[in-house]
């Protein structure tokens, strides 16, 4: 079956703009988690959605937001972009919630955001 | 001190060598994951562990819950094993990651 699909794969924005990233989970998976990866901070948890509800949120400012639709597809949005938001944004899906505490995570290829 | 510590940071091996990557954590966990990341960014989940030992092909992962330590072993290493290996721990509400171990296997 198809894996986790993230779009777009690459994008360039300027400071102050906003960006929306999309994640389509594996069919049947209802949990989607988002992560930010930077050279300085490594991988960090952003938020998790399960059945259209945000379960948890990591330590990120309110400029970072997300949502999940009834078909389990998820989007994340970053408003008022800053240079430090340049990163690889990864999403992962799983059948059950809890960020891999009860089930394997399947990651997408990521969306690489560059903020100029 | 990071909650998830990996060692070594970098590792270079010759093809065929036995490789061990270690992970220590300081928080309570529900599960520990070993992830593989190739250049380009995509991450593949290798193992999810809550106790004991798992084996998949040439890869073996072990966890000692009492000592809060896990190891990833690669037997008969191959250049295609070259990647960054990341240890991550989850507790139902959060997932914390190690900084990763960059493995290079030379032919």
Top keywords for this entry?
heterodimer; A: 116 residues; mainly beta; 7-stranded mixed β-sheet; 4-stranded antiparallel β-sheet; 0% helix; B: 107 residues; 5-stranded antiparallel β-sheet; 11 strands
Report what the structure shows:
The complex is a heterodimer of chains A (116) and B (107). With 116 residues, chain A is an all-beta fold. Chain A is built from no helices and eleven strands. In chain A, strands 2, 4, 5, 6, 9, 10 and 11 form a seven-stranded mixed sheet that branches. In chain A, strands 1-3-8-7 form a four-stranded antiparallel sheet, with no helix packed on it. The radius of gyration of chain A is 13 Å and the shape is globular. Chain A starts with a strand and ends with a strand. With 107 residues, chain B is mainly β. Chain B contains no helices and eleven strands. In chain B, strands 2, 4, 5, 9, 10 and 11 form a six-stranded mixed sheet that branches. In chain B, strands 1-3-8-7-6 form a five-stranded antiparallel sheet, with no helix packed on it. The radius of gyration of chain B is 13 Å and the shape is globular. The N and C termini of chain B lie far apart (36 Å). In chain B, 35% of the residues are buried. The interface between A and B is medium-sized, with 28 and 25 residues.
Question: Topology of this structure?
Answer:
The complex is a heterodimer of chains A (116) and B (107).
Chain A: E1 5-7, E2 10-13, E3 19-24, E4 31-38, E5 42-50, E6 53-57, E7 64-68, E8 74-78, E9 87-94, E10 106-107, E11 111-115
Parallel strand pairs in A: 2-11
Antiparallel strand pairs in A: 1-3, 3-8, 4-5, 4-9, 5-6, 7-8, 9-10, 9-11
Chain B: E1 4-7, E2 10-14, E3 19-25, E4 31-37, E5 43-49, E6 52-56, E7 59-64, E8 69-74, E9 83-90, E10 95-97, E11 101-106
Parallel strand pairs in B: 2-11
Antiparallel strand pairs in B: 1-3, 3-8, 4-5, 4-9, 6-7, 7-8, 9-10, 9-11
């Amino acid at each position: 079956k198809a894996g986790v699909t993230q779009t777009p794969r690459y994008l360039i924005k300027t400071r102050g703009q906003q960006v929306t990233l999309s994640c389509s989970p594996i069919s049947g998976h209802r949990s989607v988690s988002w992560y930010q990866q930077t050279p300085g901070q490594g991988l960090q948890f952003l938020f998790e959605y399960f059945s259209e509800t945000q379960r948890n949120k990591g330590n990120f400012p309110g400029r970072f937001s997300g949502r999940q639709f009834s078909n389990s597809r998820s989007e994340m949005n970053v408003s008022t972009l800053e240079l430090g938001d340049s990163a690889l944004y990864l999403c992962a899906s799983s059948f059950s919630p809890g960020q891999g505490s009860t089930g394997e995570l399947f990651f997408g290829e990521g969306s690489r955001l560059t903020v100029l | 001190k990071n909650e998830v510590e990996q060692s070594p940071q970098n590792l270079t091996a010759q093809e065929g060598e036995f490789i061990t990557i270690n992970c220590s954590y300081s928080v309570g966990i529900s599960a520990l994951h070993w992830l593989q990341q190739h250049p380009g960014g995509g991450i593949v989940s290798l193992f999810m562990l809550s106790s004991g030992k798992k084996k998949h092909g040439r890869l073996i992962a072990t966890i000692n819950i009492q000592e809060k330590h896990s190891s990833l072993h690669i037997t008969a290493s191959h250049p295609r094993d070259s990647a960054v290996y990341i240890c991550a721990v989850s507790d139902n509400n959060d997932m914390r990651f190690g900084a990763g171990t960059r493995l290079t296997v030379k032919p």
